[in-house]
Amino acid sequence: MSSSPPEIPDAETKAAAGQPCAAGAISQHFDTRTAATELAESIHGVVGDTCDLMFVFGSFHHRAAFEIAVQTLRQTVHPTTTIGVTAESVLGGDLECEGLAALSVLALRLPGLNTRVWSAGPGVPLRAADHEELRDQTHLNDDAKGVIVVADPFTTPINDVLRALSSLSTRDQPVPIMGGLASGASQPGHNMLIMDDHVQTAGIVGVTLSGDVEISCVVSQGCRPIGEPHVITRGDGNTVFELSGRPATEVLREEANELNDHDKALLGRGLFVGTVINEHKAHFGRGDFLIRAVTGMDNDAGSLVVGDRIRTGQTIQFHVRDADTADEDLQLLLDLEQLNDPPLAALLFTCNSRGSRLFHDEHHDVRLIRSRLGDVPLAGFFAGGEVGPVGQESFLHGHTACLVLFRSTHKTNAPLD
Predict the structure, then answer these.
(1) Strands 272-276 and 315-320: what pairing?
(2) By the 8 A CB rule, do 178 and 217 touch?
(3) In terms of Cα–Cα distance, which of 262, 261, 268, 279 is closest to 317?
(4) Which residues of 85-100 are buried (b: 16+ CB within 10 A; e: fewer)?
(5) Rounded Cα–Cα distance for residues 18 and 335 (Å)
(6) CB–CB of 340/288 below 8 Å?
(7) What is the mean pLDDT of residues 292-301?
């Protein structure tokens, strides 16, 4: 006697039974209200009347009515917490809508998830003078699983913010901070940040997550090391004068001469350095470096100018970047994620220098992610800077894809009929 295989509950059934579920949707309709209505109907069809957390990303075309779009969504699915931001371009599903009008939404229904939203204005975005005051403001306690932030780049000293938030952790593994800088405007006052029913055009908004959720972050910097690691034997500020006791430019020329023609061509398009995160390692590979661009060179002084502060005694290695390297880097990182349970949902904060500006085909990152991790609900935007952890600390990145993955750890005995 044969029997048919058991039916796998769909997302609507899970929602009705109080099971974790997520929905993502994107609309390319140019009219903001129409796009929002389409998204609201699509999301409601999966999560129902309520959800715990909703992210809304709108291209700059929707700026004028972005607040109305978020209100439409909130009135339909009644999220406990909403975070929204405008951007140059947004993405969702398997589409990266570069330069096109689009609204993208991700809604999560996660029993046992705790969300605490917070915001800060321009200038001095966080009250960092007192740790307890800052902890109270951001709810970043030791039970936090992760923090998602979106910020206006014109009014937020994001590196100072990240240092302040990182200083709150007393755990061996600090709480990861993830997100991106709004990219929907070329001047102050024109980006929009939304936290529930609050709208601001400057500063930062964030949500601190705790409870029955596991959050992991894939940070693909898309670079490949060349040459050998070197210790900075003389440096000041953001300038490297000597590597291994020799002028930095001399070391660079020597290593460049040993490259093949392909890598020499890549070097001509842009030079990067990777600063070693953990100096105690015997060998360094992908994921061991924080990548920064080389922004200047002085042959007379033999020095290189790097897009970050450096210090004498640090180990660095030269890097190059191209489409093939960026693809390979993301593939290798996704290999590791495939060892875990499939994610419930994903957010992607990717640099506005990626997409078709970098790759040979459109929609590269989102389609690669979904081909490797399944048809996971996914939303995000092209950022003016990406935030994600490397090693034990969270940093601001460039040219990087920061992929945030949500998995539920909620245990329930609710039947799924």
Answers:
(1) antiparallel
(2) yes
(3) 279
(4) bbbbbbbbbebbbbee
(5) 31
(6) no
(7) 94
Alpha-carbon gap, residue 220 to 218, rounded angstroms? 6
Count Cβ atoms within 10 A of the Cβ of residue 76 and give its class: 0-12 exposed, 13-18 middle, 19 or more buried. Answer: middle
- This prediction has a pTM of 0.91
β-strand partners of 83: 55, 195
Residue 46 CA, distance from chain mean position: 25
Range 228-249 burial, b when 16+ CB lie within 10 A, else e: ebbebeebeeebbbbbeeebbb
Q: Which two tokens stand for residue 155?
A: 């009014």
pLDDT digits (tens, 9 = 90+) for 190-238: 999 999 999 999 999 999 999 999 999 999 998 989 999 999 999 999 9
β-pairing verdict for 230-236 and 315-320? antiparallel
Predicted local distance difference test score (pLDDT) of residue 413: 54
Report the distance separating Cα 280 and Cα 416, nearest Å: 50
3-state secondary structure the chain: CCCCCCCCCCHHHHHHCCCCEEEEEEECCCCHHHHHHHHHHHHHHHHCCCEEEEEEEEEHHHHHHHHHHHHHHHHHHCEEEEEEEEECCEEECCEEECCCCCEEEEEEECCCEEEEEEEECCCCCCCCCCHHHHHHHHCCCCCEEEEEEEECCCCCCHHHHHHHHHCCCCCCCCCCEEEEECCCCCCCCCCCEEECCEEECCCEEEEEEEECEEEEEEEECCCEECCCCEEEEEEECCEEEEECCEEHHHHHHHHHHCCCHHHHHHHHHCCEEEEECCCCCCCCCCCCEEEEEEEEEECCCCEEEECCCCCCCCEEEEEECCHHHHHHHHHHHHHHHCCCCCCCEEEEEEECCCHHHCCCCCCHHHHHHHHHHCCCCEEEEEECCEEEEECCEEEEECCCEEEEEEEECCCCCCCCC
> Which residue, 185, 163, 228, 238, is CA-closest to 64?
185
Region 268-282: mean pLDDT is: 86
Burial 19-31 (b: 16+ CB within 10 A, else e): bbbbbbbbbbbee
Tokens in use for 371?
Answer: 């081909």
CA angle, 32 then 81 then 49, to 5°: 75
Pairing of strands 21-27, 103-109: antiparallel
